[in-house]
């Protein structure tokens, strides 16, 4: 009889039922499964990347603002002054001036209502907006500007309001705070208690006079107080130029105090007690209010918030001296 061997029992090849062959099959099966999973995840992440890019493009192309204008015109152009007045905020000079220019260019608008709810902020930003209102009114003198203070119209916010033809508020609104503050912190005693030595190298003997880790120098403090006084006087002059003889003769008027709307009316800081809708009806003869306030696009707002750093803000709070109208 011939000595014939089947392929499964050929030399060098394990039996189909052997442990070695089953192990090989399992390894091959696992590798195929891993490849399938890798392909699925690859497709998923490609789809996710595509969706992310599509969302970015959509947000970039999305208009930052749109005006729902009533037919026939004759509406009040509302511009919101909300929150802190600063270069990187919604109530920045760039945002507010752009809104004002759009409103003044609109032939169908009957006038502007500055709807204010702000504690103030940068004297520079406030001054830019004040000056732009005055400039635009010279170009279109028949286009009235009214300021309506809601919960709060203080400091730099009142600076802006003073450029309006008339100012209105609620009887419980907080108005005024015509003053300037320079704020910061001092940590010299803390460093001494911790045994930390401050090393500050400058070129110019006064270069580091705002350093919170160095002791105050009386001469430098006097100088800084002078800077605040000059800024305060500028603020006062602009308020007087805007309000004129309507201001009461009160020694506390420019002391930085804040008053209720009812008190502010007696002091001549405002001209009446009214809401935005009431001003639109009584002064501009319209029921329609159209918001002209420039807004950041969703993408711009996302990038701004994404790039914000809590640590950076905390460091600024501890180490930077700030000058604000309050």
Structure in a nutshell:
With 326 residues, the chain is of the alpha/beta class.
Produce the secondary structure layout:
Blueprint: H1 19-61, E1 75-82, H2 93-105, E2 109-118, H3 123-139, E3 145-154, H4 156-161, E4 166-169, E5 174-176, E6 180-183, H5 188-194, H6 218-243, E7 258-260, H7 261-267, E8 272-273, H8 276-284, E9 289-291, H9 298-307, H10 310-319, E10 322-325
Helix pairs in contact: 2-3
Write down the overall geometry.
flat
Q: Beta-strand level of the residues, as a percent range?
A: 15-25%
Evaluate the radius of gyration.
Answer: 34 Å
Level-1 CATH class name: Alpha Beta
Explain how this protein is built.
It is flat and about 110 Å long. It has one domain (75-325): 2-enoyl-CoA Hydratase, Chain A, domain 1. It has helices spanning 19-61, 93-105, 123-139, 156-161, 188-194, 218-243, 261-267, 276-284, 298-307, 310-319; strands at 75-82, 109-118, 145-154, 166-169, 174-176, 180-183, 258-260, 272-273, 289-291, 322-325. Helix content is 45%, strand content 16%. With 326 residues, it is α/β, with parallel strands linked by helices. Strand 3, helix 4 and strand 4 (166-169) form a beta-alpha-beta unit. Helix 2 (93-105) packs parallel to helix 3. The model is unreliable at 4-9 and 299-320 (pLDDT under 50). Strands 1, 2, 3, 4, 5, 7, 8 and 9 form an eight-stranded mixed beta sheet that branches. The chain has a two-stranded antiparallel sheet with strand order 6-10. It is built from ten helices and ten strands.
């Amino acid at each position: 009889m011939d000595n014939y061997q089947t392929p499964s029992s050929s030399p060098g090849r394990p039996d189909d039922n052997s442990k070695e062959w089953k192990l090989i099959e399992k390894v091959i099966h696992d590798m195929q499964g891993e490849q399938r999973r890798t392909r699925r995840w690859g497709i998923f992440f490609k789809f996710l990347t595509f969706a992310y890019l599509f969302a970015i493009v959509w947000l970039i192309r999305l208009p930052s603002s749109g005006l729902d204008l009533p037919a026939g015109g004759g509406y009040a152009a509302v511009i919101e002054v909300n929150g802190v007045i600063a270069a990187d905020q919604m109530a920045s000079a760039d945002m507010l001036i752009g809104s004002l220019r759009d409103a003044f260019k609109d032939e169908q608008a009957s006038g502007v209502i500055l709807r204010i709810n702000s504690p103030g902020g940068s004297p520079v930003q406030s001054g830019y907006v004040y000056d732009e209102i005055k400039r635009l009114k010279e170009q279109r003198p028949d286009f009235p500007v009214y300021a309506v203070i809601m919960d709060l119209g203080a400091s730099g916010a009142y600076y802006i309001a003073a450029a309006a033809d008339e100012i209105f508020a609620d009887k419980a609104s907080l108005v005024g705070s015509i003053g300037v503050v320079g704020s910061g912190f001092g940590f010299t005693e803390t460093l001494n208690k911790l045994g930390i030595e401050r090393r500050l190298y400058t070129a110019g003997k006064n270069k580091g006079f705002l350093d919170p880790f160095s002791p105050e120098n009386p001469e430098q403090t006097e100088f800084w107080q002078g800077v605040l006084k000059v800024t305060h006087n500028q603020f006062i002059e602009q308020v007087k130029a805007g309000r004129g003889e309507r201001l009461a003769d009160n020694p506390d008027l420019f002391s930085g105090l804040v008053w209720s709307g009812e008190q502010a009316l007696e002091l001549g800081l405002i001209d009446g007690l009214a809401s935005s809708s009431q001003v639109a009806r009584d002064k501009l003869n319209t029921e329609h209010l159209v918001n002209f306030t420039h807004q950041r696009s969703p993408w711009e707002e996302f990038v701004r918030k994404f790039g914000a750093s809590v640590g950076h803000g905390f460091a600024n709070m501890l180490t930077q001296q700030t000058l604000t109208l309050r």
